[in-house]
Write a structure and sequence with these properties.
Largest sheet: 20 strands, parallel
CATH architecture of one domain: Sandwich
InterPro entries: Cadherin-like_sf, Ig-like_fold, Pectin_lyas_fold, Pectin_lyase_fold/virulence
CATH topology of one domain: Jelly Rolls
CATH class of one domain: Mainly Beta
GO molecular function: calcium ion binding
Distance between the termini: 120 Å
Radius of gyration: 39 Å
Pfam family, one: Big_9
């Protein structure tokens, strides 16, 4: 048949139509129709656009959306299909230029961590739209993606969820998709899920140079990696744009088994390498997997693949988790091959097209490739390097039979959006696309078309800095629905009215235009509004006169209600709005202050959002509670406004009787391959770890003295996400994943609370995870999940405010005598936190005190000597260090008192009545307190005495006869 021609048009995200900007309403497209996309960039308002399709064909008559032959059709933004089905998308390009508005600089780097950054939220139709999405997001069944080119999309290349059953992906190129986050590269070439009995096919595709994985067929919470067939495709150099490399191809779920995966005659190449560049099974494993005829240049990993068929493969690197002798019908190479490997993969949908893959082990400058099974003699052809697909062909000509020469050296590489070009795969590896150029088929018939119609728009007069109202006008078209007509605006005086300040609204035939003059400008501009049906246009022009600049008015900020949170937990992102009569909302700046910086430092008031819609997130300081008034100030550059809201931070309540139980990991009951290791840098530290993923355990028996809600803390060493989790269960109950350092990976040992994923499958969904324990004995089991995840100690506590510290120095007060050196033992300095009874070393940061005294280490303690003649309060800083190298510092305050004065004595003179005449020597004219003792332990004050001018102190002790021995001193 001669299918009707449908022009590419845009639809708003909230108003689904037949195809992305593609067709009239869906009812005008019928099963069996072909929609031709003409050459050019398809987007709205000269910026990336999110298109949605709800096209619905039938199994016998699918709808085809196809690039017009000989032209390059590009969707700039994103294509999503959530409803409908039986649609073939064929041959066009999907990418994101990130040219959202004037002033945007394309970037593929975010300062945020995790898979959902807000970096690429952009204003769109008065709303904030997230452009961190897959280039093609398929959520409808029975579709085919044929020879698409999906690249430079922020959220990833192709995404397919479980609703997109029975999907075929064929001949696709997926590259440069994703972004570099603060933690790692994100965004895969293909991310897919599938549930049996539905199937998914990925065939004859090239997936390369994406930020994260090439392809990841996985998911959590239920088995959603079933019935994948991946055949004849190449996955190479994925992760090359990121700071660290991940896998090229991963198949397997987090939980449950992947049913019936098929991986056949694929090609993998990389130069970075990981422990599992190809990973079959992942955490959950698979059943009835078939892995045949693949060429694995890099390392592979196999895990829990029940009833697996493994034959005809070539392995050039490590085969982790695989007993090679159990699968003898493969080639396990120990040296680099010396003969080239060349594969030509014909395209079943486009005769004469093929993918060419070359492993250039012979180090040739060019290789001979036999394409006689693909091209008829006399066919004009081009060969394009996959890494420069839209660039100049590396070879072109007319096929004369036999082999063609394909270069391996000096291959160009296209530049990604917002990043630098990665290295070329050549000369060691090459991926190419062979295209015939001699014929054009399926040319659509011409269609008659008349220009759209636009009504006149009256001239406008505005005050400087003030936008116009929404000016109404109408549009129509004899052949095209009004909803599909697009508008553009231009200004004759962009200094007064930039083109970006001409904004359209309305829908269908009834449209509006709003004109906003630039700040501090006045004058006249002619505004031209152009309406287009995709082929023809019509225009109307009106004049805007802007008067002199009026007085600036302050911006406006909405109120925020009172907020509450708990200690150590940030608030959610609190929404508010800002606006200004003269200044664009995007130019308004925000600042936040706290009335209680001890509770909420100003730096912990963080803003998000954009344009008029902003958010604020407030994070209390660690371990603090109380109330603070948070003031937000919005500024337009010369005037400002504020809003204030109270934030209450409540402290968790400790139980009446707190329990803290410390346990060494090596003291638990070990099941191999969970093993005790010794820290190479500190022989006194021992810890446990499993050497094999999903195997081994350590169990602790804990006697709980008080029933209640308990928390478990683990001391772990997790430098990266590759080895940072255990399974944890109590008393044989529910087992959940403990992500022991999610987002806080470190090369240092650290304490983290045992958490869980719950039913969501997401790390830290339960943080912390709580355990209800009765009084008595309980078992706590840590089971191996990832190899080399380490555990040094655990603490079980019912105190929600408790945060473990191996050693904690507390400020102390000591007493010493003046003019005397005093020795303080190490026990004088130890704080209350030394749960594991580690050996503590006391040291000092400086040999001098604040009041000129001196301190030094001696026999594990400290010697203190005050400045001569000093009395009063003196301080110095000390540090406690345990045997594992953990340390903590605090201040010691020394109260220095006058030392007892031992006055020199002269011979006693005993009187006839038994009294004793005592004479002592002191300082002339000094008053003393006279004391007497019979045992040098208990002293009794006799009275006050004074030394004479000669220094002698004379007195008579009438009680002398009542003592057997007598000692005297003055103070």
């Amino acid at each position: 048949m001669s299918p009707p021609r449908h022009r590419l048009r845009h639809r708003k995200r909230q108003q689904p139509v037949g195809s992305p900007d593609c067709v009239e309403p869906a009812s005008s497209v019928k099963p069996g129709d072909t929609i031709w996309l003409r050459g050019g960039v398809h987007r709205q308002l000269n910026r990336p656009t999110k298109f949605t399709s709800s096209l619905s064909g039938t199994s016998a008559a699918p709808i085809t959306v196809r690039q017009y032959p000989g032209e390059r059709a590009t969707i700039d933004g994103n294509l999503t299909q959530s409803t409908g089905g039986y649609v073939n998308y064929w041959g066009f390009e999907v990418m994101d230029s990130q040219q959202f508005a004037s002033g945007w600089i394309p970037t593929r780097t975010s300062t945020q961590t995790g898979p959902f950054p807000t970096t690429w939220w952009a204003p769109y139709d008065g709303k904030q739209i997230d452009f961190c999405v897959s280039g093609v997001d398929l959520r409808a069944p029975n579709c085919k993606l044929i020879n698409l080119v999906i690249h430079d999309n922020i959220g990833g290349g192709l995404g397919m969820n479980t609703a997109a059953g029975n999907t075929e992906v064929y001949g696709m190129l997926s590259y440069y998709n994703g972004w570099q986050g603060a933690d790692r590269g994100h965004g895969h070439g293909i991310y897919a899920q599938n549930v049996a009995p539905a199937v998914k096919y990925v065939e004859n595709s090239l997936v390369f140079n994406n930020y994260a994985l090439g392809m990841q067929a996985t998911g959590s919470a239920s088995p959603i990696a079933d019935n994948f067939t991946i055949e004849g495709s190449a996955f190479f150099l994925n992760g090359a744009l990121a700071n660290s490399h991940q896998q090229n191809l991963l198949i397997g779920p987090y939980q449950g088994q992947a049913q019936n995966p098929v991986v056949r005659t694929n090609f993998i190449y990389d130069t970075q390498g990981t422990s599992s560049d190809f990973f079959l099974g992942y955490d959950g494993g698979s059943a009835n997997a078939i892995c045949q005829g693949n060429y694995f240049q890099t390392s592979t990993m196999f895990n829990a693949n029940a009833n697996m068929t493994l034959a005809g493969n070539t392995f050039l690197s490590a085969t982790i988790g695989l007993t090679q002798s159990s699968y003898p019908n493969n080639s396990y190479l120990t040296t680099t091959p010396t003969k080239n490997v060349i594969a030509v993969r014909p395209n079943k949908y486009e005769p004469g097209r093929a993918n060419i893959l070359v492993y250039n082990w012979e180090k040739l400058n060019s290789v001979a490739v036999d394409v006689s099974q693909v091209l008829p003699v006399g066919t004009a052809y081009e060969v394009h390097s996959a890494q420069n697909f839209y660039g100049t062909p590396v070879v072109k000509g007319t096929y004369n039979g036999g082999s063609i020469m394909v270069p391996m050296m000096g291959l160009p590489v296209a530049a990604p959006v917002g990043a630098s070009a990665p290295p070329a795969a050549g000369p060691n590896f090459g991926a190419y696309v062979l295209l015939p150029t001699s014929s054009v088929t399926n040319t659509p018939p011409p269609a008659t078309n008349s220009a759209p119609v636009i009504s006149s728009i009256a001239n406008q007069t505005l005050n400087a800095g003030t936008a116009s109202s929404a000016i109404a006008f109408t549009v129509s078209d004899a052949q095209t629905a009004a909803t599909s007509l697009t508008l553009a605006g231009t200004s004759s005086n962009p200094t007064l009215v930039p083109n970006a300040n001409i904004v359209f609204g309305g829908s269908s035939s009834n449209r509006t235009v709003t004109v906003t003059p630039a700040a501090n400008q006045s004058g006249t501009a002619n505004i031209t509004v152009t309406v287009s049906d995709g082929s023809l246009t019509s225009s109307k022009t009106f004049t805007v006169t802007v008067s002199a600049t009026p007085v600036n008015t302050p911006p406006v900020i909405s109120t925020i209600t009172a907020q509450t949170t708990v200690t150590n937990k940030a608030t959610a992102a609190i929404a508010f709005t800002v606006s200004d009569a003269q200044t664009a909302a995007t130019s308004l700046t925000l600042a936040g202050t706290s009335s209680n910086p001890t509770l909420v430092p100003n730096a912990n008031i963080v803003f998000g959002g954009s344009s008029s819609n902003r958010t604020v997130t407030v994070t209390p300081a660690a371990n603090q509670s109380g109330t603070a008034n948070i003031t937000i100030t919005v500024n337009d550059g010369s005037a400002s406004s504020t809003t204030t809201f109270p934030l209450t931070v409540t402290a968790p309540t400790a139980p009446a009787q707190t329990v803290t139980i410390p346990l060494e990991a090596e003291a638990g009951l070990l099941v191999a391959p969970m093993t005790v290791f010794t820290n190479a840098q500190n022989s006194s530290q021992r810890y446990v770890a499993t050497t094999t993923a999903e195997q081994g355990s350590v169990t602790f028996i804990v006697n709980v003295p008080v029933a209640g809600t308990y928390y478990i803390w683990g001391k772990v060493l997790s430098p990266s996400f590759a080895a940072d989790s255990f399974y944890v269960s109590v008393d044989g109950g529910t087992e959940d994943v403990y992500d022991d350092a999610e987002g806080v990976w470190s090369n240092n040992w650290q304490w983290t609370a045992v958490n869980g994923r719950g039913t969501t499958g997401q790390p830290l969904a339960l943080n912390p995870r709580t355990f209800t324990l009765s009084q008595g004995s309980h078992s706590i089991k840590f089971r191996g999940r990832e190899a080399n995840a380490t555990l040094d100690r655990i603490i079980v506590s019912n105190d929600p405010t408790f945060v473990p510290k191996d050693v904690a120095a507390n400020s102390i007060t000591l007493t010493a005598n003046g003019n005397t050196t005093t020795q303080f033992t190490s026990t004088s300095f130890q704080g209350t936190t030394n749960l594991f009874k580690d050996t503590i070393l006391v040291s000092i940061a400086s040999p001098y005190t604040t009041q000129g005294g001196t301190v030094s280490s001696c026999d594990g303690g400290i010697l203190y000597t005050p400045k001569s003649g000093f009395t009063g309060s003196d301080t110095f800083t000390f540090t406690l260090t345990d045997s594992s190298g953990n340390s903590s510092s605090a201040t010691a305050t020394i109260t220095v008192q006058a030392a007892p004065v031992r006055t020199a004595s002269v011979p006693l003179q005993k009187q006839a009545d038994g009294s004793v005449q005592v004479v002592l020597k002191g300082n002339p004219g000094t008053n003393y307190n006279l004391q007497v003792s019979s045992d040098l332990q208990t002293w009794v004050t006799l009275g006050n005495v004074s030394a004479g001018n000669d220094g002698l102190i004379a007195f008579t002790d009438n009680s002398a006869s009542s003592f057997r021995s007598k000692f005297y001193r003055t103070i």
